[in-house]
Amino acid sequence: MPLQTLYLAALLAVSAATPAPPATLRDPTLVAGCYVLALGSWHPDLDLGPAKAFIIPPNRVEVRAAPGESGWAKDHYALVPVPGHTSLHSGLFWDFTRKGTIHVVFTTGHAGLTMDLSLARNNLVGSAQTFWDFTRPVQTTTVNAIREPCGRPSSHKP
Q1: Which of 152, 108, 157 is CA-nearest to residue 134?
Q2: SS3 of 8, please?
Q3: pLDDT at residue 7 in the model
Q4: What was the pLDDT predicted at 151?
Q5: Residue 83 pLDDT
């Protein structure tokens, strides 16, 4: 048996015995849909006064598999509040990370929050953190994004 054939047979035997690495999330259609956003309590608990509005995302969003059309969303996947829900954030978008998780941004250009989420069954779970264009402690919280059909009133309370 030629050496190349023997090497190929050994390589195939090793690769067949080696489990495949877990698939990372890269298909935007697996994530696309409408979600109710439920955030936990922010830590540390800061008295932000009226600025608290900058770290509150819309209660319901639609995660789209298509790129945004303008502004910050142009080079990212689109994220929009569902009809009847508003956001003071002018930039809402999402992308996949190198690890195959989902990075979501809600920004006014000066302040907002980001979310790092993973697909868990049919929902998205993870954490959020605040950002500001000046020195202020970063706050973190948990996020549970519950998938619901688009175009119907929500049956979940955020």
Answers
A1: 108
A2: helix
A3: 42
A4: 81
A5: 87
Residues of the chain with pLDDT under 70: 1-25, 152-158
The span from the CA of 152 to the CA of 96, in Å, is 27
> pTM, whole model, 2 decimals?
0.80
Q: What is the pLDDT of residue 65?
A: 95
Number of C-beta neighbours around residue 76 at 10 A: 19
- Cα→Cα distances 54→45, 100, 130, 133, Å: 15, 27, 9, 12
pLDDT of the residue at 157:
54
CA distances from 114 to 22, 36, 60 (A): 25, 16, 16
Q: Any idea how long the chain is?
A: 158
Phi, psi of 75 (to 5 degrees): -100, 20
Measuring CA to CA, how many Å separate 92 from each of 11, 15, 55, 95, 130?
47, 42, 13, 11, 14
Q: Domain residue spans in the chain?
A: 25-148
Which long-range contacts does 136-140 make (Cβ < 8 Å, 24+ apart)?
136/46, 137/44, 137/46, 139/42, 139/43, 139/44, 139/46, 139/55, 140/42, 140/43
Q: For the domain covering 25-148, report its CATH number.
A: 2.40.128
